[in-house]
């Protein structure tokens, strides 16, 4: 728990939310500025800013809950989004997974997807480098 964190305050009940789900390790609620109808956030109760700050056993339940909400909303097309860092569009520094229904072209998440040229030699070198650290 972080005293200054808005999502920790939501978990504690100090700030109200439209709570969809709660368990020992997970909390889920409707996003207050939705990109589409049913936009929800699924968060670990463990406070940490980035995905890499959260222990594995606090991560395992998050996607099943996001899936449950997507089904409850009746979303057939949707995005699961988890931003890390300001430049990656993170505003709230408590890890959260967005479940954003994509009902049509204009509502929901819009994605800029700037693909880069593929150099297979460089890709293979990168692959070897990453694999060696896993
Ligand atoms: P991000 O840009 O990934 O950090 O997203 C933060 C999200 O938190 C935004 O979609 C906000 O609308 C949402 N948000 C911020 N404050 C609240 C709140 N009090 N209740 C519900 N959602 C919130
Ligand atoms: Zn927090």
TrEMBL record:
Cofactor(s) this protein cannot do without: Mg(2+)
Superkingdom in the source lineage: Eukaryota
GO biological process, any: nucleotide metabolic process
Chain ranges for the short sequence motif Histidine triad motif as given in the UniProt record: 94-98
Protein name (Swiss-Prot/TrEMBL): Adenosine 5'-monophosphoramidase HNT1
UniProt-annotated catalytic positions: 96 (tele-amp-histidine intermediate)
Organism whose genome encodes this protein: Aspergillus aculeatus (strain ATCC 16872 / CBS 172.66 / WB 5094)
Catalytic activity: adenosine 5'-phosphoramidate + H2O = NH4(+) + AMP
Family: Belongs to the HINT family.
Domain HIT as annotated: residue spans: 6-109
Keyword Magnesium assigned: yes
The entry's keywords: Hydrolase, Magnesium, Nucleotide-binding
Keyword Magnesium part of the UniProt annotation: yes
InterPro entries named among the record's database cross-references: HINT, Histidine_triad_CS, Histidine_triad_HIT, HIT-like, HIT-like_sf
Molecular function (Gene Ontology), one example: hydrolase activity
């Amino acid at each position: 728990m972080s005293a200054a964190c808005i999502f920790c305050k939501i978990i504690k009940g100090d700030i109200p939310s439209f709570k969809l789900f709660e368990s020992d390790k997970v909390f889920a609620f409707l996003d207050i500025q939705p990109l589409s109808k049913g936009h929800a956030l699924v968060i670990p109760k463990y406070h940490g800013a980035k995905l890499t700050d959260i222990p594995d056993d606090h991560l395992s339940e998050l996607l099943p809950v996001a899936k449950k909400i997507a089904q409850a909303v009746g979303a057939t097309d949707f995005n699961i989004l988890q931003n890390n860092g300001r430049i990656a569009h993170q505003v709230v520094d408590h890890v959260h997974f967005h479940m954003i229904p994509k009902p049509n072209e204009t509502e929901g998440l819009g994605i800029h997807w700037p693909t880069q040229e593929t150099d297979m030699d460089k890709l293979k070198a990168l692959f070897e480098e990453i694999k060696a650290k896993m």
